[in-house]
Amino acid sequence: MSVPNVVVHRDADMLARAVAARVITRLVDAQSAKGSASLVLTGGSVGIATLAEIAASPARDAVDWRNLDIWWGDERFLPSGDAERNETGARKALLDHVDLDPDRVHVMRGPDSGMTAEESADAYAEELRRAARPEDHGPAPSFDVLLLGMGPDAHVASLFPEMPALHDTRPVVAVHGSPKPPPTRISLTLPVIQGAREVWVVAAGSDKAGAVRLALSESGPVQVPAAGARGRQRTLFLLDRASASKIPASLGRISSP
Ligand SMILES: O=C1O[C@H](COP(=O)(O)O)[C@@H](O)[C@H](O)[C@H]1O
Known about the structure:
Layout: E1 4-9, H1 12-34, E2 37-41, H2 45-56, E3 68-72, E4 74-76, H3 86-93, H4 117-131, E5 145-149, E6 172-175, E7 185-188, H5 190-193, E8 198-203, H6 209-215, E9 234-240, E10 253-255
Parallel strand pairs: 1-9, 1-10, 2-3, 2-5, 5-8, 8-9
Antiparallel strand pairs: 4-7, 6-7
Helix pairs in contact: 1-2, 2-3
């Protein structure tokens, strides 16, 4: 697993613009190296703002959108089209505005599919398994970029502190009793997250500062799930100044003016 690098931007707006630029560049690089790319989306404030910035960027057409697989790190177990679904936010911000191959948009199904949360998690695990190649050495693709928002409690995806999902070794799990509504969710687990080539944690706001500090410390992921957010080749913590305000000075960081 890689050691995190921290990049700090002036404020949440600048952060979303800068992450958008990074995503575009990373996807273009991956596509020029191997023809296609994979991107795992997150819900949450910075995650969705980043997608809106990608949609607004003149550089977005540098991406070959039809050769991109879109996945989700987690989903709120709500019917298709519900405003609280991460999918709905992502579609509105970006996915409805670019020429994606619908077969490559891998949605975590909600209750309107007729599946229970457990069945939906298992179906997603099967979809990941089918997409994995021998060189991925695991039950899921080694995603090019996996984006993760983070809550003030240091949750990432729908992995909340001290909850059973943090001990689960299956690739995808149903989460019940989430402390943040809605209570039922679907989430990738840490082994799949840590199999991604690059994991980028995005966070803004002073309410996240304590969680950011802990996520960059030696804390264990059961207490601090974001401390387990590490990519195989690269881990980035992409922050605004407020969320980075409690990082120890010993951690090197680059600030935008
Ligand atoms: O519920 C969720 O929250 C987190 C973080 O959201 P934020 O609004 O505090 O940035 C998000 O990463 C996760 O995907 C989502 O389901």
